[in-house]
Write a structure and sequence with these properties.
Mean pLDDT: 92
Largest sheet: 7 strands, mixed
Structural class: alpha/beta
Number of helices: 16
Radius of gyration: 22 Å
Low-confidence stretches: 2-21
Shape: globular
Order of helices and strands: HEHHEHEHHHEHHEHEEEHEHEEHHHEHE
Distance between the termini: 50 Å
Helix content: 25-40%
Length: about 400
């Protein structure tokens, strides 16, 4: 279960500081500030929608999985009639796509009926005992509501891309461990290359849709961290290694000239901001205005890439404009909203028992031990409603930001 939480729950607390209106940039962030002040930049929504004019496939590299505000932005993009494509996500196993889209293409359901169908989807959404991030519930429900105002041929579908998995086929911890070890072995290449799998799942689905609906050429792909890195730097020990290290790169190479990779502002690594906080400082000095822009030819693009790089230092040093084509700044870190819980998911006694069974298998313990675990019982209590927190690390993050800002 700890492994599950490591993947699904990453959060820190931050409190927004008060700053005078007369903040002036220090020399170290002046180039960033000057760019933000002197350029006429689009809003994130307009930037993404205009990017679809030139490219068919836009890949968003999201910030922390449970962060909710970014999905408000995404829902706003999808709501616009100029968005005419479908959505593809890292979250969710591939075989969950059918029930998701069965729901999304229905009409006239009551809000309660929609919620109940989404609860059924979440019970079989992921290879972990439960995916607790509320924003995916919000995404499905938002797209259902959007589709109620669209013609049949214009309705949006959501296609989860993760590896096919069914809890019905997992009967013991040995089976589950074998599956996880094949996907994420310790110190060895994976038997199941998750990035290549998701990339191929995208291409097969996208090509099938193109065959049946040639007019549906647009796709919004939502990946997290390195899965969303559009181009991966050279790996020095084996420069010609053909291994696929990101889903986004797989898609980028499969559809040359049709793909644009955009990063949503977030953090670099645990406890660290991008560029040691210079970016956040520049946005704060200029009022934290939400914007989107292409990275090449900008001081942001020319910044040395310092986000998570697969956990090692054996990769070529590159700038951000090598990894991504664009950047969206939407809400400063103090406004990030981490939201967990799927309301009503554990009102179903049968699923409560199934959840304990899954947790026992995932942790290699007995069902009785799972039921006696205060930690697991806490999930049943907390994830049956909505829990909101802000990012942890107030002092640390604000120290990183404030060091680059000098008061007038």
């Amino acid at each position: 279960m700890k492994r599950i939480l490591t993947l699904a729950i990453l959060s820190w607390l931050i409190i927004s500081p008060a700053f005078p209106q007369s903040l002036q940039p220090g020399d170290s962030i002046k180039t960033y500030v000057d760019f933000l002040k002197t350029k006429s930049l689009l809003s994130p929504k307009e930037y993404v929608l205009q990017s679809f004019r030139d490219k068919d496939i836009i890949i968003l590299s999201e910030r922390l999985h449970p962060e909710f505000r970014q999905y408000e932005m995404i829902a706003d993009i999808l709501k616009d009639e100029r968005f005419t494509g479908d959505v593809y996500t890292e979250v969710g196993v591939f075989n969950a796509g059918q029930p998701i889209n069965d729901l999304l293409h229905k009409e006239g359901l009551s809000p309660e009926e929609v919620d109940n169908e989404i609860l059924g989807i979440f019970k079989n959404l992921d290879m972990f005992p439960l995916w607790p991030d509320y924003n995916y519930f919000f995404l499905i429900k938002s797209v259902y509501d959007i589709n109620q105002h669209r013609n049949k041929q214009d309705k949006i579908s959501i296609y989860p891309l993760d590896i096919i998995f069914s809890w019905d086929s997992i009967q013991c911890d040995a089976q589950y461990k074998m599956f996880m070890d094949m996907m994420e072995p310790q110190g060895f290449p994976p038997v199941i290359n998750r990035n290549a799998w998701m990339g191929e799942a995208f291409s097969r689905t996208y090509d099938r849709i193109q065959y049946h609906h040639p007019e549906k050429t647009k796709a919004l792909v939502i990946m997290n961290t390195y899965h969303g890195y559009t181009r991966i730097p050279t790996y020095f020990p084996h420069p010609e290694d053909p291994m696929v290290y990101s889903t986004a790169e797989y898609i980028y190479k499969t559809y040359p000239g049709k793909v644009k990779g955009i990063s949503i502002n977030g953090i670099a690594n645990t406890g660290q901001l991008v560029c040691e906080g210079k970016w956040d400082a520049a946005f704060r000095v200029t009022g934290n205005v939400p914007v989107g822009f292409d990275l090449p030819g900008t001081p942001f693009g020319e910044t040395t890439f310092d986000m998570y790089n697969f956990g090692g230092t054996a990769y070529a040093t590159v700038n951000f404009d090598y990894i991504f084509d664009g950047l969206v700044f939407f809400e400063p870190i103090e406004n990030f909203d981490l939201v967990w819980g799927i309301p009503g998911i554990f009102n179903d006694t049968i699923f409560v028992n199934e959840f304990y069974r899954r947790c026992a298998i995932a942790d290699g313990i007995t069902p009785e031990e799972a039921r006696a675990s205060a930690e697991i019982r806490g999930y049943v209590k907390d994830w049956n409603g909505i829990t909101r927190t802000k990012m942890e690390g107030l002092e640390l993050y604000n120290e990183q930001i404030n060091r680059w800002i000098k008061k007038q």
